[in-house]
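Title: Request for sanity check on GntR family transcriptional regulator prediction

Description:
We are preparing a figure and want to confirm that the structure record we downloaded matches what your pipeline produces today. Could someone re-run it with the sequence below and paste the raw structure tokens into this thread? We only need the token string, no images.
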Amino acid sequence: MPVSKKKPVAFYQQVAETLKEDILSGKFVSGERIGSQKELEDRFGVSKITIRKAIELLEEENLVVTIHGKGTFVKQEKVEQTLDDLRSLTDIIKLSGYNPEVKVIKKETKLTSPTFSKNDDGNNIETLYIERVHIIEGEPIALAQAYIPTKFGEKLTKKDLENNTIYQLLKDKCNVHLKNAEQSIEAYPANEELSKILEVPTGSPLLKAERLVYSTNDELVEKIIFYYRFDSFAFKVKLDNLSITPMWPTSSN
């Protein structure tokens, strides 16, 4: 609904108040996008500057977070990763309203096992191996171990990897466009090395996620293993009625 010229309130304040009501009423849920710049301009019939000022008000109230090129999202209370779309960990953290820091602690050429690819041809593959620690407010919350085929990895510098997501780098520097991914998640106890990196006691429960990422050419372009501190992350997946299977056999009577 367009803003009203009859109200003794600035346009940007009217927009901010309407969006705030949408968020607090549950019309937009945690982590949901409330619209792109253009979508909000069209919705309220106002200028780009008005929308920007309205979003700034909502950001000051800690209600939303804006990611350049993606839109504005309702801020989450904790880092929560949905399992129905492919996003970088950095973007996921930003969606939760935090400003993440990424530190590369290892970058080297390494031969992977044939399991790098689901098509096991018995040959090792030369890759760029990267270890990156994801940090929020000075505290390490996740470790990512990534393998990228050398033909792509050789184009990526340490500075690139600390200031950009790998997915963005694959697109911008390697002209690789992502199609989909396969991911598995399991519990994993922190060994001595992980304990030191993530600053948790040895044996502490971690969430371990392993992901294979494919390009639009169906080429495997990344294998990555994440180790998340269990107290910092949650995973969520949306199920519709067709995907629900009864746990117990139903009676025919």
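Thanks, this matches our download. The longest helix spans residues 11-24.
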